[in-house]
Backbone:
């Protein structure tokens, strides 16, 4: 399992304490003295990193980072095991949020909230609509009705059914009505795709 990174910014004593027990931690610790060195660090992923700062006014990253990615600790007493627990909780939240967002074209699909968003517009999707989108973005191939029936609905039928076409039509219509985009899901004689 790959460990997440925790960047400690201007909190030398905390870094030294955690460094002493680093083999027992479920995360990596990396010390930085300024914002320039932090942003140049190849291990720094702005969406999947946690920053611990001693002084709120010393860290001018709030405009670039989700506030959940920053923990500000001042000089008040806290037990070490409680501190590690707080760090682990924040890392789990970051990982959960990071894994739940899928980029589709220039849209963001949030699997937790079941929202498709672009340019501050948000469209609520059903579970089946999300499954269709996720299946179509797995590869650039065109997927016909039988393929979608089998892999999304879990059945294959020789009978004429319009379940797939109806769901795709409704999804395309919802996306057009909200985002005014006709080409989100493309329809070809060979099947459907998202490019």
Residues:
């Amino acid at each position: 399992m790959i460990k997440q990174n925790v960047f400690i910014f201007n909190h030398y004593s905390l870094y030294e304490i955690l460094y002493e027990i680093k083999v027992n931690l479920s995360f990596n610790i990396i010390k930085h003295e300024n914002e320039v060195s932090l942003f140049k660090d190849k291990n720094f992923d702005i969406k999947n990193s946690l920053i611990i700062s001693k002084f709120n006014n010393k860290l001018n990253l709030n405009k670039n980072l989700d506030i959940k990615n920053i923990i500000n600790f001042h000089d008040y007493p806290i037990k070490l095991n409680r501190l590690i627990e707080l760090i682990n909780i924040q890392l789990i939240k970051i990982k959960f949020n990071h894994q739940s967002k899928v980029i589709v074209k220039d849209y963001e699909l949030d699997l937790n909230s079941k929202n498709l968003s672009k340019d501050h517009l948000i469209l609520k999707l059903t579970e089946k609509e999300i499954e269709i989108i996720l299946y179509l973005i797995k590869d650039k191939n065109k997927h016909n009705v039988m393929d979608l029936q089998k892999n999304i609905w879990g059945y294959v039928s020789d009978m004429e059914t319009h379940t797939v076409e109806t769901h795709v039509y409704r999804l395309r219509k919802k996306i057009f009505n909200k985002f005014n985009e006709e080409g989100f899901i493309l329809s070809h004689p060979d099947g459907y795709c998202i490019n």
Q: What stands out?
A: The chain has two domains: 4-99, 102-193. The chain has a mean pLDDT of 84. The CA atoms of residues 45 and 134 lie 24 Å apart. The two ends are 32 Å apart (CA to CA).
